[in-house]
Design goal:
By secondary structure, the chain is an alpha+beta fold. It has six helices and seven strands, in the order H-H-E-E-E-H-E-H-E-H-E-E-H. The longest helix has 14 residues, at 186-199.
Length: 204
Amino acid sequence: GVLPVLTHALLSPLIASFLPTRPLARFRFESELSSRLVERLEDGHLDLACVALPDSLAPGLAQLPLGQLRISVVARQGHPRLARFRRLADLAGEQWALPSRDMLLRRWLDARLAAHRLGEPSVIVESADTPASFAALLQRSDLLGIASTAMLAQPAGLGLCALEGSDFHWQHRLGVLWRQQAALPPLAQEFRDLAVAWCAGREF
């Protein structure tokens, strides 16, 4: 299992690194919200889950770190008010394209706005898809959005920029989870260990 935001930034390059040494390996992955992936893991439907780590881990689960997920508020590089955006308060009245309310990235943004007493964002376009699905829209409009460091470094992020200022960036710990009492298949163990080594010190 993998968070949607990590499918291209983490899972794809990991599988590409793993297959040359294990050509008989086969993968099936599900891309879901962290809470749903943890449920699927506990039910025995998944061997491993790459998620945003919860504050407390459910009994019976083990974890290893996978680096940091860094999220930024973004706009197109030619946005007419880009130079004015220095604090969250400067975004009052702006319109957004955002993930749906039940997605972790959206909850983080809503919590930051609430902490600054700025109210809810004016959302014009909303989707349960990944932030990358908004890239073309953000590039062609004056809507604001959110994106990961990895997305901005990919072709999908071309023409977008992270707003400057500490108010516009936050991060969360990522990790890989598995069931402590379940017999993890040897290939799954190898893949888990490769993921931990490959992710050491990375931001996504």
